[in-house]
Specification:
Helix content: 10-25%
Order of helices and strands: EHEEHEEEEHHHEEEEE
Strand content: 25-35%
Structural class: alpha+beta
Radius of gyration: 18 Å
Bound molecules: biotin
Shape: globular
């Protein structure tokens, strides 16, 4: 079998302002732009997050970027995890911080959200394309966040006490994503799961509340991540696996 090594960022579209990098990247996917194409904006007027929420994108403060990828369909589940790992690693190259991954989409520091991942599918040509959107709070101060999330969010500048070089972080992010994506395409899923597990924001036995896509909430005890990237919970006497769900609460 021949493996290709994908290069990310050979084609990069930069904007001062966009509604959302997801939208522009989607248009590129529909026009069959190559895998690895990147879209980055200094400001988003309609940035979006998971579950139909908006992603407030303070001008010039954060990293707002979308990557166009065309993975094999069997690897689709892994993309949010992989993007989380890449974002964590990119931040770590900038500053040695104990960032945690809140399965499946969030990057957290001491319980506060530092970044989020949004993956959206697009059917383009012969292969499914996925837009992997990553938002990182870099040079935000508390007043740069909307009041309703201000107590829940943090930024690198707030943690480290000084502004950080966004361009360098963007560079690290592309390189890190490229590295993890190439592992995925070679089928090295166990390494992805193992590394994600190591940096999870909760531990086996910890009680969690999750919300399924249908809106149903469930309480259970965290057991593990399975090899497909799903979360395994012990609910009563049974063990159940959940995929596209969100963690609402982590009990200490
Ligand atoms: C979340 O945690 O809810 C996911 C947030 C994803 C935000 C990024 S910023 C770049 C890209 N463009 C968007 O509109 N959203 C993603």
């Amino acid at each position: 079998m021949i493996f290709r090594n994908l290069k990310i960022g050979d084609l990069c579209f930069r904007f001062e302002q966009l509604d959302s990098t997801m939208n522009f990247c989607r248009q590129l996917a529909e026009l069959n732009f190559p895998e690895g194409t990147v879209v980055i904006a200094e400001e988003q007027t309609a940035g979006r997050g998971t579950k139909g929420r908006s992603w407030h994108s303070a001008p010039g403060k954060g990293l707002y970027v979308s990557f166009l990828l065309k993975p094999e369909p069997k690897y689709l589940n892994y993309l949010p995890l992989l993007a989380g790992l890449a974002a964590r690693e990119a931040v770590n190259l900038l500053a040695d911080l104990d960032l945690r991954l809140k399965w499946p989409n969030d990057l957290v520091f001491e319980g506060k959200k530092l970044g989020g991942i949004l993956c959206e599918g697009v059917s383009s040509g012969e292969k499914t394309a996925v837009i992997v959107g990553i938002g990182l709070n870099v040079n935000h101060q508390p007043e740069d966040f909307p009041a309703e999330i201000s107590g829940l969010a943090t930024s690198l500048a707030m943690i480290l006490g000084r502004n950080q070089e966004k361009e360098l972080l963007f560079d690290f992010l592309g390189k890190s994503l490229e590295l993890w994506y190439n592992k995925l395409e070679k089928g090295q899923v166990s390494e992805i799961i193992q590394t994600f597990r190591k940096h999870l924001s909760f531990s086996p036995g910890q009680k969690l509340v999750i919300e399924e896509t249908c809106g149903k909430r469930l309480e259970g005890f965290f057991v593990d991540l399975n090899q497909k990237g799903g979360i395994v919970l012990k609910i009563g006497r049974e063990q159940k696996v959940y995929y596209s769900s969100e963690i609402i609460k982590i009990f200490s």
